[in-house]
Amino acid sequence: MPLVSDQTFFADGLAGLEAGARADLASDEVSHVRAARIHPGRRLAVIDGAGARWDAELVALDRRRASCRLLAPVPPEPALRLHLWAPVANRDRSLWLVEKVVELGAATVTWIEWERSRSVADAGRSEGFLRRAEGRARAALKQSGRSWLPRLNGPRTPEEALGRHSGAGWLADAEGRPWLSAGIARGRERPRAGNGLTVAVGPEGGLTSSERRRCLEAGFELVSLGSTTLRFETAAVVTVAAAAAMLAGNGNEAEDERTI
């Protein structure tokens, strides 16, 4: 069902509501509504980041509050059981990465403190970074038309992450099979994975031999993106995009990925 409006905003408390109910937009969206010059009577789309998506009508707006009337539910894009382990790395490139993997449908993003990440000053560690990443994720969700806001976790040591890991895993690594397509083909042959697929990307300089070995022992498969050396954010986006396409074609979806 197409949306009547391409203007999308977060709204509070959409769970369990029916057509005709009123809902308040999130407090930080009020200024965005005013900047977009949307007035009462105009149509807009509202989401809650947990799967709910509605066509709605703005009915009240003042300096601190915006309320809408829900008109019709819109079927959301399926949620994918797709998880990214990103390295603690450069802040700006990490924020760009968040935007892109949200657009592709990642359910969770977890920052990993790989051994070669330890010299990085901030990104992935501080509360300030996580707040910025959350803001980028919300903006990307609205822009992309998706309905599921990923859970952002960080940071974790490789030992912590691997100790919690279950299900299938891809590790982007130059020592993997020559083409990512080989990994996709093997993924299609597997039965539906209850815990989905985790994509792991190392820092600049790659993983140490010990880290790579521990990932292999935990069930990760090495997948190569070719002979060129890619930046971590490029490798992550390419691998997540391939994983998303494979999972969508495999019916590997979930109602609420934030419970995983």
Describe this structure in words.
This protein has 260 residues and is α/β, with parallel strands linked by helices. Helices cover 32% and strands 26% of the residues. It contains seven helices and 13 strands. α2 (91-104) links the parallel β7 and β8 (108-112). The longest helix is centred in the last third of the chain and has 19 residues, at 232-250. It is elongated and about 60 Å long.
Key words describing this protein structure:
6-stranded parallel beta sheet, 260 residues, alpha/beta, 13 strands, disordered C terminus, 5-stranded mixed beta sheet
List the strand order in the largest sheet: 9-8-7-11-10-12
Helix-strand pattern, N to C? EEHEEEEEHEHEHEHEHEHE
Overall number of strands: 13
Q: Please state the structural category.
A: alpha/beta
Alpha plus pi helix count: 7
Helix content: 25-40%
- The low-confidence parts are 255-260
Tell me the overall shape.
elongated
Could you give the distance between the termini?
28 Å
* Main pleated sheet: 6 strands, parallel
Strand content: 25-35%
Instruction: Work out the radius of gyration.
Output: 20 Å
What is the residue-averaged pLDDT? Answer: 85
